[in-house]
Amino acid sequence: MTGRRTATAPIMGTVMSIAAPGDTDPDLFAAAAEAAFACLRHADEVFSPFKTDSPVSLIRDGALRVAGLGDHPEGARIQEILDLCHALKTESGGAFDAWAVGDPPAFDPCGAVKGWAAERASAALTAHGLTGHTLGAGGDVRVRGGAGDRPWRVGIADPRRPGRVLTVAELADGAVATSGTAERGAHVWDPRTGRPASGLLQVSVIGPSLTWADGYATAAMALGPQAYDWLTDLAERTGYEGLVVDRESRMRWTPRMARFIPALAS
Amino acid sequence: MIKVAVSLVSTAVGLVLLLSFKSHTAGAPKSALAGTGSTPASTAGPGGAATHSPSPRRTKRPRGAHGTFTGDPIDTPYGTMQVAAVVSNGRLTGVTVLRHTDVGGRSAQIDAAALPVLKSEAMSAHGADIDVVSGATYTSRGYAGSLQSALDKAGI
């Protein structure tokens, strides 16, 4: 592949990056990228807890009742996020709890929204004809269609050394989500302790959908020392594989991670 | 596409991590950590035997070595290193850098370098072509100096 087409946009307090093989039609690429960015901006309008009049802020502040969502123009999408947050809370045994973030505990679905929104944005790229692409949503990645005659190569950041990667995942279609403390400190909330989770440096999860990969990575960060066992069980049930970096220079990955990371094949 | 430098600190570190588990069976931890090339045999820890910690949670029939295997300390240009490998049913599933002697403030680089040199032909070519980066969410400001930013600028 010679070169790539790329586009970036600042959304959700981070930067979204889209890339496609260099032989992609430039007009098609530009239109698809703009549709995906619009999709992400819209999700930010609805779900940002930092915008005081967003539906999520209204729910948090008691001004919008969940029971009344059926009449809301964004009701269906909000319900999707609520269902996702419920599922992640159940899956993680309460370690991920969108209804108990912060002190005092408040509703904040941020840990689930970005991956879900990026999954939708990637689908929008495909719908606009950009079948082969990478979408980097501030560190969470969705790829589709491969890079011509090879899979996409997704670097997993080294949490201790900015600008370096620990290893490289190869996949034509799928998601790589990473949650960690390297960029914004300890920000994943552990409702069980009422404090930010700080047991791990970084968790990456690889699987088909970024919606779930991102949710699982966030839940694993909140689980801290129990994350590896939880991810191992999760991998057996769902096929989503995990890689954990803890504070003691220990790196562990679920047994079938080598499917995605050739360097780990033994 | 740009070449992204990947951490390759020392050949010796790489060698000690080039582990081979294929021919080993459960209950044979002694030979599960095999050095290659000119690296001294690194089959046992300081106590003379590899530590072996079977996991009671596993109910599936093991198909290979299982447990944590500790290598001998080895001297590298960056100090003395010792690593342990975690193996589940014959598959390598973890690496821990147990100790290293700090030389010139470089120890922090060595432990972070442990993962990429695992069995990786591509990495040993001193670089890796990557398309996109997965990492902790950066802020708009943090993006400016990020690897992803460099990749985005490399587009045509």
Structure overview:
The complex is a heterodimer of chains A (266) and B (156). Chain A has 266 residues and is α+β, with helices and mostly antiparallel strands. Chain A is built from 6 helices and 12 strands. Chain A has helices at residues 26-47, 55-60, 75-91, 110-127, 210-223, 227-238, and strands at residues 4-11, 14-21, 133-137, 140-144, 152-157, 165-171, 174-180, 189-190, 195-196, 200-207, 241-246, 250-253. In chain A, the strands form 3 sheets. An 8-stranded antiparallel β-sheet of chain A has the order 1-2-3-4-7-10-11-12. In chain A, a hairpin with a 3-residue loop joins strand 11 (241-246) and strand 12 (250-253). In chain A, helix 1 (26-47) runs antiparallel to helix 4 and helix 5 (210-223) runs antiparallel to helix 6. The radius of gyration of chain A is 18 Å and the shape is globular. The two termini of chain A are 29 Å apart. Chain B is 16% helix and 22% strand. In chain B, the strands form 2 sheets. In chain B, strands 2, 3, 4 and 5 form a 4-stranded antiparallel β-sheet that branches. A two-stranded antiparallel ribbon of chain B has the order 1-6. Chain B starts with a strand and ends with a helix. Chain B is built from 4 helices and 7 strands. Chain B is elongated. The longest helix of chain B is centred in the N-terminal third of the chain and has 7 residues, at 11-17. By secondary structure, chain B is of the alpha+beta class. Chains A and B meet through strand 1, strand 2, strand 4, strand 5 and strand 6 of A and strand 5, helix 2, strand 6, strand 7 and helix 3 of B.
